Amino acid sequence: MFIPLNSTNYLGELMYNVLAIDDDINFLKNLTSVLRYNNYRTQTANNPFEVINLLQKERFHCVLLDVQMPGMDGLSLLKEIKERFPAIPVIMVSGRSTLAVAVKAIKQGAFDFLEKGADLDRLLITLNNAIEFYNWQKERDVLINELIGQYRMVGQSSAMKKIFNQIDFVAPTDSTVLITGETGVGKELIARAVQLKSKRSTKPFIRINCAAIPETLIESTFFGHKKGSFTGAVKDQPGKFELADGGTIFLDEIGELPVQAQAKLLNVLQDGEIETIGATESKKVDVRVIAATNKDLNALMAEKKFREDLFHRLNVFHIHVPPLRERIKDIPLLVDHYLKFYAEEYNKKILGISPEGLNILLEYDWPGNVRTLKNILSRAVMFARSNIISSEEISLALEMDDHKTWYSGKSMSLSEFLEFQEKHFLRQTLLMCNGNKQMAAQKLNVDRATLWRKLKKYRLDFES
């Protein structure tokens, strides 16, 4: 009878499934006896041509594989197993092994290499380590899928489909990536997607906002410093590149980096070495660099504000994100996605948005791109009086963004500005009170008659 994955024995202990492959029947019998005694469910195969079929039918935590078998050698079978079932650890076992064979097996993906006759403790320790590795991979995959969900990008426009394809293409490589696009289009989301789909997915992702670091601290921030190397250096401090070793560093707003710092960054990209301030020797780091900017780097190069050699080092693979106003087709999907997100955050039951509300969003020019859309939908959900977001709630959420432009862009008198603010504040209060005028009057500390006059003046029609 087949025992399911992660099954338990009669004592309630967890049992793991092991597949042992060898043409030596006596060896398989002895191995099975030992493993079952140590609480492993063991299945055997002495025909290497049956193995792939077995792995397709059942799930195993580990494979023990003989190196030399008639008809197919173990290394060829190892290659096929790793191609079809990369998550399953394979321990090679041989009675006539050489160092060259062992090295070749490890290079082809074997978890470890054991000689027949090795002591029992070593076998059990190696098997336990392999299964722990298998479980860790599964936990890692769950975590990565959760993170991908958290940083999920939404879109069905041709521009977004192209970006999804670019991410899938470049992520498995170690290529440097340059992401360009206006503020708020989601450049960091793309950087995280590249990292999460890469072989560095479980390693650090370090973000640096190049525009936020004082010029005097850039070198220390990037590369770290030793205690006493300058005034205020009271202890050793690792830099961001050292912290990102083995993982990915995201250089946001790279166009704001001063020219002198650009030269030091170029050296790291060329040599893969950092020079910590106050250290006597450079240090090797293995870091993938992803950079992003909303600036026109070609224009900055023409003005001698950005190094051309650094640009070519960063621009190995270029992803450009068009503004939201150029991919209107994505807006309904984005609206649906973020309404669900904010409904959960604010503990509200939101089923969707009215056609009139969606039309307002489709006709808006989105100067802040997706970032602004998120802010507006967050407010709209906050104001929502029913499970359908109304056009009025969308309009109010938009006004809260638009009113900022009155200070600089639009000419108006003081009385006009005060009326605008008063109307805006009344609408917000009424929405927060679900249209209840009595409650709104109490919150505003005015009598009901005064509130009625104001509502009539500004043509704010709310049912009480």
Q: How would you characterize this protein structure?
A:
This protein is of the alpha/beta class. It folds into three domains: about 15-140, Rossmann fold; about 150-320, P-loop containing nucleotide triphosphate hydrolases (Rossmann fold), CATH 3.40.50; about 325-460, Helicase, Ruva Protein, domain 3, CATH 1.10.8. Helices cover about 45% and strands about 15% of the residues. It has 19 helices and 16 strands. The strands form five sheets. The protein has a five-stranded parallel β-sheet, with helices on both faces. A five-stranded parallel β-sheet has the order 7-10-13-6-14. It is extended and about 95 Å long. The relative contact order is 0.06. Mean pLDDT is about 85; it is low at about 1-15 and about 405-410.
Strand order of the largest sheet: 2-1-3-4-5
Mean of residue pLDDT? 84
User: Number of DSSP helices?
Assistant: 19
CATH architecture of the largest domain: 3-Layer(aba) Sandwich
Which structural class should the secondary elements be placed in? alpha/beta
Fraction of residues in helices?
40-55%
Strand content: 5-15%
Number of DSSP strand runs: 16
Instruction: Give me the Rg, rounded.
Output: 31 Å
Key attributes of the depicted protein:
five-stranded parallel sheet; Rossmann fold; 13% strand; 464 residues; 16 strands; Helicase, Ruva Protein, domain 3; 3 domains; single chain; disordered N terminus; alpha/beta
Would you kindly provide a brief summary of this structure?
By secondary structure, the chain is α/β, with parallel strands linked by helices. It has helices spanning 25-37, 51-57, 74-84, 99-107, 120-150, 158-170, 187-196, 218-223, 240-243, 259-271, 297-302, 308-314, 331-345, 355-363, 369-383, 391-402, 414-432, 437-444, 448-458, and strands spanning 16-21, 40-45, 62-66, 90-94, 112-115, 177-180, 205-209, 224-225, 237-238, 248-252, 273-274, 283-284, 288-293, 317-320, 352-353, 388-389. The longest helix is centred in the first third of the chain and has 31 residues, at 120-150.
